Amino acid sequence: MRKIVIIGVLxxxxxxxxxxxxxxxxxxxxxxxxxxxxKDIIERKLDSYPPEMVFAYTWAKKKxxxxxxxxxxTRILKAGMTEEDNQKVVDDQKMxxxxxxxxxxxxxxxxxxxxxxxxxxxxDPKKEEKRELEMVRNINTLMIKExxxxxxxxxxxxxxxxxxxxxxxFPFRHLNEKITVxxxxx
Length: 186
Prior knowledge:
Layout: E1 2-9, H1 17-27, E2 31-34, H2 38-42, H3 51-63, E3 66-69, H4 83-96, H5 108-111, H6 117-122, H7 125-142, E4 147-154, H8 158-164
Parallel strand pairs: 1-4, 2-3, 2-4
Helix pairs in contact: 1-3
């Protein structure tokens, strides 16, 4: 039987490695899928990826867990937007999140706080949907047939993944619930 768990993290160094390691150890996956382009994993070109994704990759290699990348190379910035514009939005969002954790951002009520005017002006919705559809296709293609699969992705993708991977569990989505009962493999 295949079990899929999806965890949202924050990029830009906002997910502490010790906490991510705790989650990875807790779920003990047979396969780890991370938000890195598979070709870049094969070629070991990981320098441009968020630190939590590189950490998860390193953890999987050390633990001899099958690890694959599901990200898309699709660029989602609107025409005319630059990496500097992107960094400004990231900096603004960091300020908004200073009282919240990466686990909080798995929940809609907190994630909505990041949907600022500047963030909406930065991202092209059609390009974003194209990217996320490709990510879901990659996940479905890469998943092992049997076993525990843990998907680590940015929190901003959780709504899309929840709609398009309905069999997956999202344990931090509703932190007030006692979820561990639902996981027979913990």
